[in-house]
Write a structure and sequence with these properties.
The chain contains nine helices and two strands, in the order ααααααααββα. It has about 190 residues and is mainly α. The relative contact order is 0.08.
Length: about 190
């Protein structure tokens, strides 16, 4: 840090603070930039310290956010495996598979590729020759049609946000005439 002037250090902290939430994370990112500065000094002199610092800080912030996202996915995967009964009720899952088969082929294909296989929407849009916003709209409409089909045929417990959170029961069991149990899988 001896090479980092106090004014430059203050600018770096301000730049990072705008992009990172917690002060501990700001310190971590600033430290990472300082380490990169020391490592780069051994290779070649830096022609424009301000530009180098800004570019390196942007990359360090991006690396920080990527590592946090990766850690969050790993935690959520662990939590999902641990709490699978609470967050993905098997009754709802049993209802969705047969209902997916009743969707139009285009809706079913989109949902299988995006939600089941986890394909990236950007790549799928490119493959299908669509704009990203068009593909996202199509996926949202397909999800809405699947949701409507589920709610028409099954009684599903919903949380405050309207997401399935409990058991799902076929309406034909309640005598409402919403279809037979084989139509929704419950």
């Amino acid at each position: 840090m001896a090479q980092l002037e106090p004014e430059l250090l203050a600018r770096l902290r301000t730049m990072v603070r705008r992009r990172v939430r917690s002060s501990a994370d700001v310190d971590d990112v600033v430290q990472e930039v300082a380490l990169r500065l020391v490592a780069s000094g051994e290779r070649a002199p830096i022609a424009s310290p301000h530009a180098w610092l800004a570019a390196t800080a942007r990359r360090a912030v991006a690396d920080h956010h990527r590592s946090r996202a990766r850690a969050g996915r790993e935690l959520s995967d662990d939590a999902a495996a641990h709490d699978s009964r609470e967050h993905a009720p098997p009754d709802v899952a049993r209802c969705l598979a047969p209902l997916m088969n009743r969707l139009e082929a285009s809706d079913r294909s989109l949902l299988e590729r995006v939600d089941v296989r986890g394909e990236r929407q950007v790549e799928l849009a490119r493959e299908l020759g669509l704009s990203i916003s068009s593909l996202k709209s199509r996926v949202q409409r397909a999800r809405l049609r699947l949701r409507r089909a589920l709610l028409e045929r099954c009684d599903v417990e919903l949380d405050r946000r309207g997401q399935p959170s409990g058991d799902a029961r076929c309406r034909s069991n309640a005598g409402t005439g919403g279809g037979d149990c084989s139509s929704c899988g419950s």
